[in-house]
Every structure is written in C-alpha cells, then in structure tokens.
C-alpha cells in the first residue's frame, strides 16, 4: 500500500470499537476511535481521515446527523454507516446524505474486507488520477519475475499493456515457466489490484468438485452443507479469477464456463438466486488450445471468448542469459528463508547451468538451487551440488513410450546389442525384449 | 524476539502428533523453541447463547491474563466457533505486537462446508492460521504478497491459496526486529 489509509471508528459500544480497531490495525491501516458523534466531529476538525465507519444509533447526536456534519466539513470523506437495526428508510436516507455504503451488524469478515477495499480503491484511484496522467507506466509488484532477456522483456511489455484493460488473457508456456506469476503480475498492475486474485487449478479437481468450487453452494444444498459457501467466481468479485490448466476441463464445464463468462452471473449449487460478479478471467495452459479446437476437444466459442490476448512465456532454454539473475534471486530467497548468509556460485557451476536445457524450466532451476543450498558447504555452490546429469532428470515432454524406447536403446548400446545381457539388465525376459525391439523398430547403428 | 520462545496451549483435545506438527512449523518459521501445554477454562463463560458462538475478544484477554508472560509468546488453540461482536465469525485473533494470540479449528474443516474432509487440508489450514496470528504478535501486519502466510484470509479458501511461510519481506522484518 503506497499510502497508509486512516480510518476513524465511531461507536458507543467499546467492544465494537475494540474489535474493529484490532481488525484494521492488522491490515496496516492507521486507526482512531471515538465513542460518540461529538468526539468524532472534534477529531475530524483537527485531523484527516480517509474512511469514517460510524454507527447510526448512538446516544446524543445520531450517525445520520453526524454524517451530514462531516460532509459539510470535509466533502470528500468516505463515510460508511453501520447499524444493528437495518431499515430500508435509514439506508436510503444515509446514501442520500452522501454515505459511501451502508452495512448491518454483525457482518461477515469477507464483506468488511470487501467494503474497505472498495473505499480504499476509490481513495487511491482519485489520488493517483492526476499523477498517472504524467507518469510513465511501469510495472510494480513483479519482484518474482526475473529476467533482462529480450524474450522476457517482451513478455513484461505485454503484461504492462494488457494489465490496464479487463480483457480475458490466455497465458501459454511449458510447465514451470511461471504462468501463475505472470497472471499475478497482470492482476497486481491492474485497476483490480485492490480485490483478490483467486486461483483455481482446474486439473486437480473432478467435474463436480470444480462446479462447487467455481459456483459455491447454499446451506443445505446437500448432506453436510451446514453453511453457505461462496464459489471462486463470487470471491473474485472486483478482482481476477485465474483458471490454471484450462485445457483439462470437461465439455460440460466448458459450456458452464462460457455461460458465466457471457453473463457474468451464476447460481450457487442448491440455490435459486442469480448472483452477479465482476471478475476478469486469466487462464493458463501448457497445451495447444488451437489444435484442441481443431480436434473438437475444446469449444471454439469458449476459445475465442478466452483468447482475447495471448501471452506466450518462453522456455528457460530460450533465455539462458537470465539464468545468472534467476540463480542470484533464488539464492537470496532460500538463504533468507533458511536464515543463512547468502552463498555464491562457482563460475563453472553457473556455466554448466547455462548449458543445461531445463525441461522443467524455472521450477526445476529453483529446486536445483534450493537443493544445492541445503546440501552444499554453506559458502559456495559447486558443480557437485547440482544434479545435472541428464539421466537424473525426466524430460517432461517425453511420452512413456519415448522414455521406454530411449531406455531400451541406451541399454542395448551399453551391452553392444547382446540381447541376453540387455534383457538381464532390464530385468525382462528375452521374448519381451524382442517384442519391444520389434515394436519400436530398433536397429543397431551401422 | 525473546529468549523463552513460544508456548502453545491446547484448550480441548487435539491429537499430540498434530500439536507436534504445528509446534514444528512454528519453531521453524520463527526460529524459536516451542513448548506444548494443556490449558483449562470453563468455556461456558465465554458462550453467547444468542449467537451460539464463543467471544474471541474475551477468550484472548483471558488467555493473556492467565497464561501469558512478558518473556514469551503464548498461543491458545480452541475447537469452538469464535466471533467478535462486529463480525459473524473469526478464525483467530491476536494482540498486534503483543504476547498472546488464539485460533480455532472450528471453521477450518471442509465438513462445515459440505465437502469431503481431508486430514491434511485441515491440519495445513490450522498450521497456517497459527503462524499467521503469531506473526501479528511479532508486529507483522497483513501482507500483500498472496503466497505469504501473513496475507489476509477471510474465507477458508483464502487460507488454501497461501503458503505456510513468511515471504522475504515479512521474514526480513521479523529478522530486523530480532536484531533490534
């Protein structure tokens, strides 16, 4: 948060003041309390508060009268009124008198957060408005996105230009390239950054679970549903929903998703009330959606709905100049989290890392650096700390058949095509080995 | 940070292995020794029959008065539904920069939301909640890094979205405090 937002709580009940005070200081706000309207007005005259959260029913001057007086003192103040006795008349009157919003006590923690975020957004946006006209837009909160390579800079440029809009984005790239980080960078540089980015890993959920996760359910919708539960679309209201591994969703869910994207409304499982939510959707996949559309496994209409902007993240092997920066970043990250002094890396080890093709991309590099810090001597990462032999790393792009075929070829070469020795080494009988040789059409090199 | 470490006090039955796991995570995250103890309260004193919940503010004050000392941090684990007067429920509560925090496992279980219970998710959520509230006692406020354990969680799914660890920024702040 660039500027510390200040909140004044006005309520005659000490327990309410204490509760709200504790809640807001944990969020990093500057918080003051007043026990009645008179004390609050004195404070507003001498100090500036961004948000005033006031009870309506208070002894002496009530909240509505206080609201009118605050508005005459400071027209731009954001005043939110709260009461335990909600009536439509008082709500309408409060809003007519310039209240920003109106809430009924007690409220859900989520609703309170949402309310304050809305108010904070309004304050920050109006303050930033003038400055933004002059300022050259530069990306913020992207400390995890490391890279000076042309390929990475081009991705960051795309992030920068797409962040300000609300268009749907598909992020493509091999596994481990940092698709979720790019989604977070888009979200945290967009006007939606005051609201949550909600991630859903579609590939990890069954169809029915995904439906309940996305749309939520009502209390009593099914056995054991003791509470209402918001779905991810609802949680992402005002913010962004990130659908990872979008290519894995079933055709039924593709239809559901298309409907929600078009109407921005849905019904909770077991409910009958239509809920609207203002979210931006960002998807990620490591598969070729276009060819899935051609083969009929992914709906064309959904594809075009999602693919307004496509950001492709290059694999690490295509930006090896970023490896030293990434290694340095991971060293700092893990040494800090392990409470160790930063270690260095031997030039030969770094060179070897730059020669490696990293099928698991940045995730693999990160794991490698973390492991090297754990097993190393605590001062310098050397070649022996890095598990760089090809045989130790499974190439994630290979199919099971490819792995089997390559392993059989390698073993045959190691035993100079001696079938009995090779079969013993592979722990299969000779007939099986012959069958495999026939299946893969293997022949000794001339 | 003090020399005496952190006391985790269970009010109600929690499996010992579970408590050990929480203690382990807390000790690793805050680099302090952790001891597990049992506490006893008559919880009915904190029960609000109108809301059918337990007053988190009062319980926090009570744990602070009866179990905390100035030389360490004290954490009360509960299994009842907690609220504070203005909110419908809370997962936990702490004195920011103070010596005491509490949390309840009650609302963290998938069963409450009609979903299949997985032992791991419940334990992971509770561990994160304990580390989060303890972070407040060390003066850490809510963090804007989504994966940081100090990011705000108002929904149980929010807890699943974050890790059980402090981000670099919060850890640095914690270490700076320790040096001071």
How many structural domains of chain B?
1
CATH superfamily membership of the largest domain in chain A, which one? P-loop containing nucleotide triphosphate hydrolases
Q: Architecture of the largest domain in chain A in CATH?
A: 3-Layer(aba) Sandwich
Strand order of the largest sheet of chain B: 2-1-5-9-8
What structural class do you assign from the helix and strand content of chain A?
alpha/beta
CA-CA gap between termini of chain A? 68 Å
The counted number of beta strands of chain B is 9
In the CATH hierarchy, the third-tier topology of the largest domain in chain A is known as Rossmann fold
Q: Which residue ranges of chain A are poorly predicted, with pLDDT under 50 across at least 5 consecutive positions? A: 133-137, 391-395
**Ends distance of chain B:** 9 Å
Determine the CATH topology of chain B.
Collagenase (Catalytic Domain)
Architecture per CATH nomenclature, i.e. the level-2 architecture of chain B: 3-Layer(aba) Sandwich
Q: Could you give the order of the helices and strands of chain B?
A: EHEEEHEEEEEHHH
Question: Strand tally of chain A, please?
Answer: 16
How would you characterize the overall build of this protein?
The complex is a heterodimer of chains A (446) and B (180). Chain A is an alpha/beta fold and 446 residues long. Chain A has four domains: 6-131, Rossmann fold (3-Layer(aba) Sandwich); 150-312, Rossmann fold (3-Layer(aba) Sandwich); 317-392, Helicase, Ruva Protein, domain 3, CATH 1.10.8; 400-439, Arc Repressor Mutant, subunit A, CATH 1.10.10. Chain A is built from 18 helices and 16 strands. In chain A, strand 4 (78-83), helix 4 and strand 5 form a beta-alpha-beta unit. In chain A, helix 6 (150-163) packs across helix 7, helix 13 (323-337) crosses helix 15 (361-375) and helix 17 packs across helix 18. Chain A is elongated. By secondary structure, chain B is α/β, with parallel strands linked by helices. Chain B has a single domain, classed as Collagenase (Catalytic Domain). Chain B is 36% helix and 20% strand. Chain B has five helices and nine strands; from the N terminus they run βαβββαβββββααα. In chain B, the strands form two sheets. Chain B has a five-stranded mixed beta sheet with strand order 2-1-5-9-8, with helices on both faces. Chain B has a four-stranded mixed beta sheet with strand order 3-4-6-7.
């Amino acid at each position: 948060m660039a500027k510390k937002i200040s909140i004044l709580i006005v309520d005659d009940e000490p327990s309410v003041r204490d509760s709200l005070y504790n809640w807001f200081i944990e969020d990093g706000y500057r918080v003051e309390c007043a026990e009645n309207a008179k004390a609050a007005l004195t404070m507003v005259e001498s100090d500036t508060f961004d948000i005033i959260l006031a009870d309506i029913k208070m002894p002496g001057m009530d909240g509505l009268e206080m609201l009118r007086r605050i508005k005459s003192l400071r027209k731009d103040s954001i005043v939110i009124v709260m009461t335990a006795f909600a009536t439509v008349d008082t709500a309408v009157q409060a809003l007519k008198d310039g209240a920003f919003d109106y809430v009924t006590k007690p409220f859900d923690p989520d609703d309170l957060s949402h309310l304050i975020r809305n108010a904070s957004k309004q304050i920050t946006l109006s303050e930033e408005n003038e400055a933004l006209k002059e300022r050259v837009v530069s990306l913020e909160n992207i400390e995890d996105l490391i890279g000076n390579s042309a390929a990475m800079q081009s991705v960051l440029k795309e992030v920068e230009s797409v962040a300000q809009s609300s268009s749907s984005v598909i992020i493509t790239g091999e596994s481990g390239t940092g698709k979720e980080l790019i989604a977070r960078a888009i979200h945290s540089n967009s006007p939606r950054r005051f609201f949550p980015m909600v991630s859903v890993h579609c590939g990890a959920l069954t169809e029915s679970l995904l439906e309940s996760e996305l749309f939520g359910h009502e209390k009593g919708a099914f056995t054991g549903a003791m509470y209402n539960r918001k779905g991810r679309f609802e949680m992402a209201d005002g913010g962004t929903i990130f659908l990872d591994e979008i290519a894995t969703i079933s055709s039924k869910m593709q239809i559901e998703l298309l409907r929600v994207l078009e109407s921005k409304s849905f019904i909770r499982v077991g409910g009958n009330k239509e809920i609207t939510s203002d979210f931006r959707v960002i998807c990620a996949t490591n598969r070729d959606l276009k060819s899935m559309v051609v083969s009929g496994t992914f709906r064309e209409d959904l594809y075009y709905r999602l693919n307004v902007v496509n950001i492709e993240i290059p694999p690490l092997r295509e930006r090896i100049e970023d490896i030293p920066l990434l290694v340095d970043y991971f060293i700092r990250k893990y040494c800090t989290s392990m409470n160790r002094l930063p270690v260095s890396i031997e030039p030969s080890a770094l060179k070897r890392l730059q020669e490696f093709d990293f099928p698991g991309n940045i995730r693999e590099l990160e794991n490698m650096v973390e492991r090297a810090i754990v097993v190393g001597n605590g001062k310098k990462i050397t070649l022996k700390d890095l598990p760089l032999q090809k045989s130790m790393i499974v190439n994630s792009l290979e199919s099971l058949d490819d792995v089997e075929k390559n392993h059989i070829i390698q073993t045959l070469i190691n035993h100079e095509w001696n079938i009995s020795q090779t079969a013993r080494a592979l722990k299969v009988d000779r007939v099986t080995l012959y069958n495999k040789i026939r299946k893969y059409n293997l022949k000794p090199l001339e | 940070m003090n020399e005496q470490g952190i006391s985790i006090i269970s009010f109600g039955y929690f499996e010992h292995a579970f408590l050990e796991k929480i203690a382990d995570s807390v000790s690793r995250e805050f680099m302090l020794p952790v001891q597990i103890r049992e506490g006893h309260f008559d919880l009915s004193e904190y029960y609000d029959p109108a809301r059918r919940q337990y007053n988190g503010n009062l319980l926090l004050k009570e744990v602070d008065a009866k179990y905390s000392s100035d030389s360490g941090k004290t954490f009360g684990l509960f299994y009842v539904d907690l609220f504070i007067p203005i909110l419908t429920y809370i997962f936990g509560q702490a004195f920011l920069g103070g010596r005491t925090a509490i949390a309840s496992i009650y609302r963290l279980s998938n069963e409450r939301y009609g979903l299949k219970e997985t032992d791991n998710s419940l334990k992971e959520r509770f561990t994160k909640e304990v580390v989060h509230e303890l972070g407040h006692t060390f003066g850490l406020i809510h963090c804007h890094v989504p994966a940081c354990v100090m990011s705000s969680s108002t929904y149980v799914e929010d807890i699943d979205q974050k890790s059980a660890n402090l981000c670099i920024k919060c850890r640095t702040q914690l270490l700076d405090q320790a040096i001071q």
